Amino acid sequence: MQTQVKPYTESELGKKEQVTKMFDGIAHRYDFLNTLLTLGIDKTWRRRAISLLKLKDNDQKVLDIATGTADMPLEIYKQFKPLKIIGLDISTEMIALAHKKVERNELSGIIELEVGDSENLRFEDNSFDAVTVSFGVRNFGNLNKGLDEIYRVLKPGGKLMVLEFTKPKYFPFKQFFNFYFKHILPRIGAKSSKDPKAYKYLYESVQAFPDYERFLNELKKSGFKNLDFKSYTLGICAAYTAVK
């Protein structure tokens, strides 16, 4: 079972509510910090992870959960040009910024954005040809419930791709990255975002997350098959794929 890690340990709010509050608060600096803290490599991770979907028909529908400021939907459109992409996020502030980005790219008719809960999706069964989640499954209040919901809304044969941080395994990069992730990144994030807890939570949530084979096992529990993952940048993150 996944260890429950929350951003604000002193708060009585549940994890879902705390995560919403956190992302609403840091939304205005989110894109800048992603680029700064990953040296821009996050864009490469997303591009390579999305390519694993291998969508072939342009009449397909894709759901992107924890869409943030819509980087994933924009890259999905760039690579595959599906009929419809829906980006969903629990943070109202993130969705507001995502709308502006989609409008600048003149894709409002193809990419729809909405505030929603990944564990209580409004969509009917078998609605989507593919579902993606980028750096978001760690934030699910209930991981297995969220995965069950994704399975429900995927069409039979539909593909899931989850991009998520992992813990590097090999010396000396493991020790170097862990020091950066635990001590340096939270200080930069706190100073830039004005929320000292947000990037401390990032480190703690990654440590608690069941990565690599353990996450494949969680996907299997929800009914997924054809399970696989690919590690990027010496194990900083991994793209997991599965089929309904």
Q: Can you describe this structure in just a few lines?
A:
The protein is of the alpha/beta class. Helices cover 44% and strands 20% of the residues. The protein has a single domain, classed as Rossmann fold.
Detailed description of the structure:
The chain has a seven-stranded mixed beta sheet, sandwiched between helices. About 45% of the residues lie in helices and about 20% in strands. It has a single domain (about 15-244), classed as Vaccinia Virus protein VP39 (Rossmann fold, 3-Layer(aba) Sandwich). It has about 240 residues and is of the alpha/beta class. Helix 6 (about 145-155) links the parallel strand 4 (about 130-135) and strand 5 (about 155-165). It is globular. Helix 3 (about 40-50) packs across helix 4 (about 70-80) and helix 7 runs antiparallel to helix 8 (about 200-210).
Give me the strand/helix succession: HHHEHEHEEHEHHHEE
The radius of gyration computed from the alpha-carbon positions, rounded to a whole number of angstroms, is 17 Å
Net shape: globular
Give me the CATH fold name: Rossmann fold
Total count of strands:
7
CATH class bucket: Alpha Beta
How far is the first residue's CA from the last residue's CA? 22 Å
Mean pLDDT: 93
The count of helical stretches stands at: 9
**Helix- and strand-based class?**
alpha/beta
CATH-derived architecture: 3-Layer(aba) Sandwich
Say which CATH homologous superfamily is assigned: Vaccinia Virus protein VP39
- Sheet with most strands: 7 strands, mixed
The low-confidence runs, each spanning 5 or more residues with pLDDT under 50, are none
Domain tally: 1
| Beta-strand content bin | 15-25%
What share of the residues lie within helices?
40-55%
